[in-house]
Amino acid sequence: xxxxxxxxxxxxxxxxxxxxxxxxxxxxxxxxxxxxxxxxxxxxxxxxxxxxxxxxxxxxxxxxxxxxxxxxxxxxxxxxxxxxxxxxxxxxxxxxxxxxxxxx
Length: 104
Hints:
Blueprint: H1 17-33, H2 47-61, H3 64-73, H4 77-87, H5 94-103
Helix pairs in contact: 1-2, 2-3, 3-4, 4-5
């Protein structure tokens, strides 16, 4: 007898949005609190790069306030924030990018 059931694996599992958000927040916390040597030899070796990655993750999660706070702490200000949002794959609307840039 042939079974139609597939084995459950990480490739074919459906994840709840809360699980995905929890994973993102966990990764953000890991990046924000990492020691300087944790990412040595990678693209995230500098703290500024790790914080920029955290900002992108906050943006994907819809946490605009945290995104803006990190961008401002990086001295990137609204001008770079606008350019980043304008080029983002997840936010394609220039109008939305301008609104978010004003919030920062």
